[in-house]
Amino acid sequence: MAAAVSAAGGLGMVGVGSTGSVELLEREVAEAGTGGRRFGIGLPDWAISRHPELVDAALQSSPMLLAVSFGDDWKWTERVRRAGIVTVTQVATVDEAERAAGAGVDVLVARGAEGRGHGTPAVGTLPLLDGVLDRVSVPVLAAGGITTARGLAAVLAAGASGAWIGTAFAACTESLVPAEVRRALIGASVDPVPPCSPTPTRRMPDRESAP
Asked: What pTM does this model have?
């Protein structure tokens, strides 16, 4: 998946989650970097807390950027920057953005509520992007609900330096998601789900007429 995105002109990301390992990371980056392609690596904060050796493996892979998200421990930042690798993190609030920028993170990803996934994003992508851009001076990418060229154009017009896209790529044939998940993604609609029919309730008798 990462190799296909990079080949198409984006920057493919290799993500390692809670069940990841150094062996998995090394295998995936070997594929992502085929032919000298650029790629990035994404790690959740709790994964490197449990397995700090993942950071060592990531640095040895020489990615263009390393993203560590969903935590507030920034000790990894300076080490990654010294290695000449761009540091990135996802933020869901303006306060998180300010703290990350103050800790020296190079690029922020403003992930709105449309993105869902880890964390508890509660603000829409465009309002969050607007608020973050007003408060930090580092480049900011937009994430959440961006699935088309029009969506990309919208966040670029709003001031984002680029877009961080996930779900749209999960529907691609190169993705490792199960076939039934891919079909559900492709068949999804923006039309609202009809509300459930109200459950009938029995009318209680008036107090005066009750036997």
From this structure: 0.85
